[in-house]
């Protein structure tokens, strides 16, 4: 059996259901955020001292019923978690009257699932490349007709394990060269970034993984490499990743021309500055381009962050979130064929509980 390595940039929001023998706690639910569902369910069942939540401590055992993942960053996932927990307070959900109270004879799980069905169909979440994954067959529910998630959101079943992203080897540079590259890159960024202007909803912007650019610095007094001379309503789509990855199918050269605008791209310098280099999801497609260039090609009217599109080179269809994940060097989660049982409390053995 091969070891299981970690995957970076995984953000998920999960739903737990208590199977406590105590009728007072049985059937209770808990909504939480995690970057590692396998570790998190163990923490919940071991108790607060082992890293579990106070609300779940000594009220289990708990079953992780489902998880929603594919968020572009932790902020997006945490805001989804909060709205799911607070449908009466969330300004997105409090406008939906039927979500304001649990129906008679409706279980806590059924109520939370009903909230989820609405959340996946409204903005900004209906534009994200989310995945709905069921862990426990006994709790599985079909989405009602007319309340199914958008077609680009797959519904999956079974456990997951994490795989490690590939790290690109880079050559060290001297301090003088690094300083020179920094100055050149700052000038290039100011001339190459494409501002996306719109009347935006800042909440939508955070959820979709965008970044508002503040233009209140004075270039005469200090240099701000990440500040662009654009309007207050301009947006540059960004990533939380600290390092980007060139896949094995990409070019080994450190420089190339953008496939779409033909401008020079120093790949090593762009990676050092945190600029995303976009490539097609198809392994044999030669597309290499700036984020802004591809975004302009696939941006639909009324959108400020693309949802999906077709590759300008090979015409292969893609979800924008998948393109960004690849640019971040993020491998996708894979089904765990070696452990087919759902993520239940069996993951926590008696020995593990004693050790906690």
From TrEMBL:
It is found in: Nucleus. One of its GO terms (molecular function) is zinc ion binding. It comes from the Eukaryota. GO terms for cellular component: Slx1-Slx4 complex. The keyword DNA damage applies. InterPro entries: GIY-YIG_endonuc, GIY-YIG_endonuc_sf, Slx1, SLX1_C, SLX1_endonuclease, Znf_RING/FYVE/PHD. Its EC number is 3.1.-.-. Catalytic subunit of a heterodimeric structure-specific endonuclease that resolves DNA secondary structures generated during DNA repair and recombination. Has endonuclease activity towards branched DNA substrates, introducing single-strand cuts in duplex DNA close to junctions with ss-DNA. Belongs to the SLX1 family. This is Structure-specific endonuclease subunit SLX1 homolog.
